TrEMBL record:
Belongs to the PAL/histidase family. It is found in: Cytoplasm. It comes from Galactobacter valiniphilus. One of its GO terms (cellular component) is cytoplasm. This is Histidine ammonia-lyase. Contains an active site 4-methylidene-imidazol-5-one (MIO), which is formed autocatalytically by cyclization and dehydration of residues Cys-Ser-Gly. The gene is hutH.
Length: 517
């Protein structure tokens, strides 16, 4: 059954954004939201009839804001605004990004602070419920004055123009799609074109989805890290709780350490070398896993705080205040969101690097404590997982490049009226690629660590790591043996992580990880 959510004037939640963007939830608009939108629209129409110029209602835009537009040209003004701002280039972005973008803009329209008519909000929601997805292209937003071009491509479809795909994912003429859904194109009036394009909705939607992905990936990183510790005959004692929160009160570190300690509980492999092992300490990539992954967790929590604040915002320019005043502002600047998007990319790159270092150690006969070179069946004849680590290293190298901040790279626009921009959209786009790369990096580690664990037989893994290995094998990832076509194994492992199957298998043994209830 398709989930249904209610959009009110008081805002929405992370869960609602994900439900609409990724799971096709249908939307109902609360009656009080329609009433609030209609009441505020009366203020805008009163100002539209007045002689005093008001930005966005009776003037041009950006560097043309000083030009007064007579009433008979204002409908054309809104059409021209949307058409000219729908200037994106490049490949279309993902459907879930467009749906998040539209839903978050609908959330702001429902706040009653933008001054649109109810029909504009109702049509935006109608597009989402009909699974009509505007074609939004990769390039066009500078992340200031909102995600202008991406939102303009969506607004164009409300007008019955532009490009869009239907529920089957096939692009068809927009009038045909609207007619099939029983929707009528909107003729935009004063203020409405601007209200549809002046928000941080694209970058915020991508941030919310990245945070959801990272919640799972951070727990999966704890699991693959624990598997590598076990396969490398490392110790679990550095993950004891008394070494973390009491001594260094970073909550993310304590959570990551607790996860790894729990996952390794009952390991026959770990128990086998508790006595007689001459090593004093494990390498940093093993011993310091909670410190790195935990810092990533704390970064995610900070980003959630920022995203929650942005989700509670009603971003438009000009904005209609509760007393009916329409006033200009700079709340469309994406800096708060852009900064945390860049911050997350740094954490993702470093976590990727940590995972790759553990994998490299697993494959190196000089450092893997008795495992065969590259975990190969007949080293020399077989290359084992040698090139899987090359792939992983290439992904890590890309993530390091993607960690270069976008938010410090402002470029002036609009004849120097918009002379400082956030580039938050670009920060979000590169974070999405980095998160996907992290999943692939962890998948390679999981394949290597699982093989290393099995090669320790007859020593037995912990119940939790044993469940992780079983999940990989059940998904179709092959175990130790002669060389075979390796790419399918890696792709399947990536899917086992993406589907949540690995995390679910482990949590069936350990209970919830990652501090989740």
């Amino acid at each position: 059954m398709t989930q249904s959510i209610t959009l009110s004037s008081s805002g929405t939640s992370f869960e609602d954004v994900l439900a609409v963007a990724r799971h096709g939830a249908t939307i109902e608009i609360a009656p009080e939201a329609i009433e609030a939108v209609a009441a505020v629209r009366e203020h805008v129409e009163r100002l539209a009839r007045a002689e005093t110029p008001v930005y966005g209602i009776s003037t041009g835009f950006g560097a043309l804001a000083t030009k007064h537009i007579p009433s008979e040209q204002r409908v054309q003004l809104q059409k021209s605004l949307v058409r000219s701002h729908a200037a994106g280039m490049g490949d279309p972005v993902e459907r879930e990004v467009v749906r998040a973008l539209m839903f978050l803009r609908a959330k702001t329209l429902a706040s009653g602070r933008t001054g649109v008519r109810p029909v504009v909000l109702e049509t935006m929601v109608g597009l989402l419920n009909a699974d009509i997805t505007p074609v939004v292209r990769e390039y066009g937003s500078l992340g200031c004055s909102g995600d202008l071009a991406p939102l303009a491509h969506c607004a164009l479809v409300l007008m019955g123009e532009g490009e869009a795909t239907g529920p089957d994912g096939v692009q068809r003429p927009v009038p045909e799609l609207l007619a099939a859904a029983g929707l009528t194109p909107v003729t935009l009036e004063e203020k409405e074109g601007l209200a549809l394009i002046n928000g941080t909705d694209g970058m915020l939607g991508m941030l919310i989805m990245a945070l959801s992905d990272l919640d799972a990936l951070l727990s999966e990183a704890d699991i693959t890290g624990a598997m590598s510790v076990e396969a490398l005959l490392g110790t679990d004692q550095v993950f004891r709780p008394e070494l973390h929160l009491p001594l260094r009160p970073h909550p993310g570190q304590a959570t990551a350490a607790a996860d790894m300690f729990t996952v390794l509980a009952g390991s026959g492999i770990v128990a086998s070398h508790r006595e007689g092992d001459t090593r004093v300490q494990d390498a940093y990539s093993l011993r310091c896993s909670p410190q790195v992954a935990g810092a990533g967790r704390d970064t995610v929590e900070h980003a959630k705080l920022v995203a929650g604040r942005e989700l509670a915002a009603a971003i438009d320019n000009p904005v209609v205040l509760p007393d009916g005043t329409v006033t200009s502002n700079g709340n469309f600047h994406g800096a708060p969101v852009a900064y945390v998007l860049d911050f997350l990319a740094i954490a993702v790159a470093d976590l990727s690097s940590l995972s790759e270092r553990r994998t490299d150690r697993l494959l190196d006969v000089a450092r893997n404590h008795g495992l065969p070179p590259f975990l190969a069946d007949d080293a020399g004849v077989d290359s084992g997982l040698m090139i899987a680590q090359y792939t992983q290293a290439g992904l890590v190298a890309e993530n390091k490049r993607l960690a270069v901040p976008a938010s410090v790279d402002s470029i002036p626009s609009s004849a120097m009226q918009e002379d400082h921009v956030s580039l938050g959209w670009h920060a979000a786009r590169k974070l999405r690629r980095a998160v996907d790369n992290l999943r692939r990096v962890l998948a390679v580690e999981a394949v290597a660590a699982a093989r290393g664990i099995e090669l320790r037989a007859p020593l037995t893994p912990s119940p939790a790591t044993g469940a992780a290995v079983a999940a990989l094998r059940a998904g179709g990832v092959g175990g130790p043996g002669p060389d075979r076509y390796l790419s399918p194994d890696l792709l399947v492992a990536e899917q086992v992580l993406a589907s949540g199957a690995l995390l679910s298998a482990v949590e069936a043994v350990t209970g919830s990880l990652g501090g989740r209830a």
